């Protein structure tokens, strides 16, 4: 049986990348809802319908677990999904808790960057209220990064120009941790690092989500012995075009490069 991964677009590949590192012998289905991306700028009702359609399709593929590799989808639908499906469903949320832990002692600020819909959700506000006892968290929606990623546009000069414009009203020296609260954003980790400097921690929920997936499968005695294969679906249609599959897999190379460069000098 395979593990399903779902995202509005290609952002979930950043979570799949982490999962493969800890679970290399599993087989995966990656479902990108490319017909409806981006979710973060749409209505909650509309997005919920897209999510349920996608998960019903993945359920028909006889998956043993599902990762909602999308902060927006997790924030608005994960509890409803768990009530409707009998396989384990692992969501992802902005890594606010470890960010606060990083910054509390020095009273540095935390910047959470995500989509508008994630930042508006009660689930996110509850998470911040639960851990942010010193009012350290600031938030910023960066929908343009989703568009850059979905267009496979990783031109660093363009990315940095966009970020500088969006961050123009922020004092970047105040921040100790940047939380990448959208799964598309780790593709641009080094652009954030160039703006904020190497002393700033840049984190996401991807690693914790992958570890939680492994923990749940181990508890259920469902760890696989597969080949690490990935089957891609775009909005319910299997991706058979070899060039598109290769394009998807180049995203792992981008992530590997981002991680290798971010460790230089640390």
The number of strands is 10
Number of helices, counting only DSSP H or I runs of 4 residues or more: 11
How far apart, in Å, are the first and last alpha carbons? 40 Å
Which structural class matches the secondary elements?
Answer: alpha/beta
Strand order of the largest sheet: 4-3-1-2-9-10
Shape verdict: globular
What do these coordinates show?
This protein is α/β, with parallel strands linked by helices and 266 residues long. The protein has two domains: 3-92 and 206-263, Rossmann fold, CATH 3.40.50.1860; 96-204, Rossmann fold (3-Layer(aba) Sandwich), CATH 3.40.50. The protein is 47% helix and 17% strand. The chain is built from eleven helices and ten strands. The protein has a six-stranded mixed beta sheet, sandwiched between helices. Strands 6-5-7-8 form a four-stranded parallel beta sheet, with helices on both faces. The radius of gyration is 18 Å and the shape is globular. The N and C termini lie far apart (40 Å). The mean pLDDT is 93. It holds the Pfam family Asp_Glu_race. Keywords: Cell shape, Cell wall biogenesis/degradation, Isomerase, Peptidoglycan synthesis. Provides the (R)-glutamate required for cell wall biosynthesis. Belongs to the aspartate/glutamate racemases family.
